[in-house]
Amino acid sequence: STIPARQMQDMVNLAAESKFDEEEEPSFSDPEDFVDDIDDEELLDYVLRERPLEADGIDSVVMVGPERLKKLKNVIHKIFSKFGKITNEFYAEVAGTTKGYVFLEYVSPNQALEAVKNADGYKLDKQHTFRLNLFTDFDKYMNISNPWETPEKQQFKDFGNMRHWLEDPDCRDQYSVIYESGERTAIFSNDPKEPILVEERARWTETYWGIALWAGEKFKQIQRFSHQVTHVNNTLTMFVRYVVTFSPLMDTKEDSQAIIIWDILTGQKKRGFHCERFRWSQDGKFFARMTQDTLSIYETPSMGLLDKKSLKISGIKDFSWSPGDNIIAFWVPEDKDIPARVTLMQFPSRLEIRVRNLFNVVDCKLHWQRQGDYLCVKVDRTPRGTQGVVTNFEIFRMREKQVPVDVVEMKESIIAFAWEPNGSKFAVLHGESPRINASFYHVKSNGKIDLIKMFDKQQANSIFWSPQGQFLVLAGLRSMNGALAFVDTSDCTIMYIAEHYMASDVEWDPTGRYVVTSVSWWSHKVDNAYWLWTFQGRLLQKNNKDRFCQLLWRPCPPTLLGQEQIKAIKKDLKKYSKIFEQKDRLSQSKASKELVDKRRLMMEEYSRYKDSAIQLYNQQRELRLELRGGVDTDELDSNVEDWEEETIEFFISEEIIPLRDLE
């Protein structure tokens, strides 16, 4: 039989490899007298073809003839007058045509800087784009030193396992606690019996110079940023790359320092902005900021303006990124005869995928479902011919063709609205105290929205869904004295009603098994503590902390399991439940054994102390007799024969009562 050519080649290669392994490794070094006669052109031809070439700039100049020069000047003056008053304009001309550049002089340097920041990259039309520089830039770029200094090689820093807590055999989540009015911070592992202290420090970060990032098993400092911050946020992608700090104290017109984006790995400032509305996309590839009549989209890692131009949206009031896609929802109020509108725009294409016109609008609020499957626009309206405000919930079905919209109307005032994080239900608190109602709706796939259940007369002003859905807590925080209702929305039943007096905050753990209610010192100066509950409303712990301020759960990264694996686990849940129940019983018996062992050790320690004290007492007997003149006072009945009996009488009082007073 014949051997196929490919198989024969594999056999030859295998034989060659075997022979090579048996022989001594060959040397690939050049001999000492070797002369390299290959030039760069031959060796790196494909690279050198792309190198920049020296030019006189003629190809970069746009020539404008005299017949269009006047029009061009008017356009340029109109565009750049937006940034300040122009005192001087100089167009370089040759024979009635421009040389392609112009010098503009403003009243102040700040106005010139603003023009450069906002108009650099401005597209005049499809073929022409403005490039701007300050006049002082010419000196700066002309005086660049020619010798290039090789940057110092930085040593690799090993911060250890950043996700070590995920390897806990008992799958305990962690949370941080700030107390003593912010002076102390502690990290705990959550346990139903009692919290397990992981790390505790006083004045963990010196806030006068900025913030610091801590990570690893021992919580070592991995980075710090010099910014007197009042708020911190970060891009929650699969791997966090940037952190955003906010401090209006640092901001000036000349230098944008209110909002700063930092690179976590290097600690370098990537870009700064003024006090403006600022939000990240769900994957961290884009971020957006809103100024008057403008929405600007920036891309990472360059931090540059997307397509080098902003969106001009007259009257824009608010915007929000989808948590599931790179889609922005924004709304614009009514303007004379032009209705208000909600627009959904996709990026980076800038494609408008849906526009919804709205009439008689007072205000709008944008509420995304956590997976981006639905968008609810809460629209407060004043219908013509009626008094008062009516609320419409405009529900956008984001995963369906052409994004259909359903409407739920409510005539009562709205207190709170919240989507189920990973489902198609939403909850609404509406009405006036003491008649506050809680309504639960289900967005069905057939294009209908059904009211599942309504609970009346609820003491609640906030809705807190479990991160896993199905369960929620209706809470009456602060002024409502901490009333709590634990609800199962699968059958819309109230599992338990409780109270944590003057509770100010509610925090679910990432698994949805536990929930914490707390009274923060920042909002109430007494009874500061946090309580741990099960999702069913069973109270597990009451943890009092002096001037307790805040509790935050440590976020968990997305699961590495696929949908099929998750389905398989749910299918075999009963099998796993038996294993977990057995483990719980062992844990309880282990806890009992630990308690008995602890008490036994305490008893043994007491017995050792008692024996040593008796031994010392006996050793000092002779010394006591000497000090007390030979009298033994160790026993109460010692030296009875030397006792003397003496009777002492004391006159207490005398009272004389006449007999007539008794008649």
TrEMBL record:
Keyword vocabulary terms for this entry: Cytoplasm, Initiation factor, Protein biosynthesis, RNA-binding, WD repeat
One GO MF term: translation initiation factor binding
Any one Pfam family match given in the protein's UniProt record, by short name: eIF2A
Gene Ontology, cellular component aspect: eukaryotic 43S preinitiation complex; eukaryotic 48S preinitiation complex; eukaryotic translation initiation factor 3 complex
Residue intervals of the RRM domain: 60-137
CDD domains reported for this sequence: RRM_eIF3B
Localisation per UniProt entry: Cytoplasm
InterPro entries attached to this UniProt entry: 6-blade_b-propeller_TolB-like, EIF3B, eIF3B_RRM, Nucleotide-bd_a/b_plait_sf, RBD_domain_sf, RRM_dom, TIF_beta_prop-like
SUPFAM superfamilies assigned: RNA-binding domain, RBD (SSF54928), Tricorn protease domain 2 (SSF69322)
Superkingdom per UniProt: Eukaryota
PROSITE patterns in the cross-refs: RRM (PS50102)
GO biological process, one term: formation of cytoplasmic translation initiation complex
Keyword RNA-binding: yes
Broad class of where this protein is predominantly found: cytoplasm
Family of this protein: Belongs to the eIF-3 subunit B family.
PANTHER family: EUKARYOTIC TRANSLATION INITIATION FACTOR 3 EIF3 -RELATED, EUKARYOTIC TRANSLATION INITIATION FACTOR 3 SUBUNIT B
Entry function: RNA-binding component of the eukaryotic translation initiation factor 3 (eIF-3) complex, which is involved in protein synthesis of a specialized repertoire of mRNAs and, together with other initiation factors, stimulates binding of mRNA and methionyl-tRNAi to the 40S ribosome. The eIF-3 complex specifically targets and initiates translation of a subset of mRNAs involved in cell proliferation.
Subunit architecture: Component of the eukaryotic translation initiation factor 3 (eIF-3) complex, which is composed of 13 subunits: EIF3A, EIF3B, EIF3C, EIF3D, EIF3E, EIF3F, EIF3G, EIF3H, EIF3I, EIF3J, EIF3K, EIF3L and EIF3M.
Protein name, as recorded: Eukaryotic translation initiation factor 3 subunit B
